[in-house]
Design goal:
about 350 residues, alpha/beta, 2-enoyl-CoA Hydratase, Chain A, domain 1, eight-stranded mixed beta sheet, three-stranded mixed beta sheet, 12 helices, 11 strands, Enoyl-CoA_hydra/iso
């Protein structure tokens, strides 16, 4: 679930997303020269196995995470089957939404990833909320720009390892649907028709790097730490692979995706992952300067320019590519190494495949 706060809303008033009373289904953003499908709208999933898989997964997630006696409304607002830490249960108290969306009078929508207790690691609920939120913002003519932030100490720490472990044990259709959701969320952000900005601080790993690769402008604070670390837990970063190559090039992607090395904000700037390193006390001023520059441009000219960049350079994923990335992702996650990697992470030990360096003879 996510909550939107619009410029025309009453103070403190929240609208539950995903249930518009009169909004039509949004039209596709644009089409690339080599495919004929809308660019990643969750409502445009193809019929057949793909649609059935997603439906099965949504129902199964609900069954698993709704505790006995817990209402459907309470479940949708927490986004998982586990209450937040330090949260006292109450019949009338609801936890915060897993994704916050607030739009100011100027048309700047701020999307805040809101699982600070786990570094904003994503799970199925966060992916669903992100897809719903971005879809709605793309269709809203009052929205001119989207800013993505992370609540708490970190921007985004990648996938929730506990969730990955659960997903690895799902039946194939549900496992595949989880990979589809991750791939769709990244695709939708990459092909979003309006300018997008990421403000990075703290940890930015795995899927967090994918989000940064998919936005138009990215800034990071000096304390930011980055890493494409999926291989260290036995999984593959397939949902973000094409976006990493597009953003930082194949050469840098090969190094960091195949080694899992961590790197700092200066290295992220050097390889083109972020545009500039900005101190925390200057971040808001930098953001406002960029927003002002964006508002000097024509909205339709900006959308046309962005569409031409993506379409002319074959940066739009068609359904064949989406299916391939999702298939590669779930099969690796379901593999023996996938199970061993997530188990080793949870148990805080080296995975079985690790080979320590040989001790030099004296």
């Amino acid at each position: 679930m996510f909550v939107t706060q619009g410029a025309h809303d009453r103070p403190g008033h929240c609208r539950r997303a995903g249930r518009p009373t009169h909004h039509p289904r949004p039209a596709p953003l644009h089409r690339g020269r080599n495919h004929q499908l809308a660019c990643g709208w969750i409502s445009a999933l193809p019929r057949g196995q793909l649609y059935r898989a997603c439906t099965v997964a949504r129902r199964a997630r609900h069954r698993r995470s709704c505790a006995p006696g817990r209402s459907r409304r309470e479940h949708s607002q927490t986004g998982s089957g586990h209450p937040k830490k330090n949260t006292k249960p109450s019949g009338n108290v609801m936890t915060e939404p897993i994704v916050l969306v607030a739009t100011d009078p100027r048309g700047v929508a701020t999307v805040t990833l809101n699982r600070p207790e786990v570094g904003n690691a994503y799970n199925a609920a966060m992916l669903d909320a992100l897809i719903q939120g971005l879809t709605r913002l793309a269709a809203d003519p009052a929205v001119r720009c989207v800013v993505i932030r992370g609540a708490g100490k970190h921007f985004q720490a990648g996938a929730d390892i506990r969730w990955l472990g659960e997903v690895a044990g799902y039946p194939p259709a549900e496992n595949y649907a989880a990979s589809i959701a991750t791939t769709r969320a990244m695709q939708l952000l990459n092909e979003f028709p309006k300018p997008t900005i990421a403000l990075v601080h703290g940890a930015c790993f795995g899927g967090g790097i994918g989000l940064v690769c998919c936005v138009d402008v990215a800034f990071a604070t000096p304390d930011s730490q980055f890493g494409i670390t999926e291989i260290r837990v036995g999984v593959a970063p397939t949902p973000i692979s094409t976006h990493m190559v597009n953003a930082i090039g194949l050469r840098h992607t090969r190094r960091y995706a195949l080694t899992g090395e961590r790197f700092d904000a200066r290295e992220a700037e050097r390889i083109g992952l972020v545009h500039e390193v900005v101190t925390a006390d200057m971040m808001e001023a930098k953001l406002q300067a960029v927003l002002d520059a964006i508002f000097l441009g024509s909205p339709t000219a900006i959308e046309t320019t962005k569409r031409s960049f993506l379409g002319a350079n074959d940066l739009l994923l068609d359904e064949r590519a989406v299916a391939m990335l999702a298939h590669e992702g779930w099969t690796q996650r379901h593999s023996p190494d996938g199970h061993e990697g997530t188990a080793a992470f949870r148990e805080k030990r080296r995975p079985a495949w690790y080979k320590p360096p040989a001790v030099a003879a004296t």
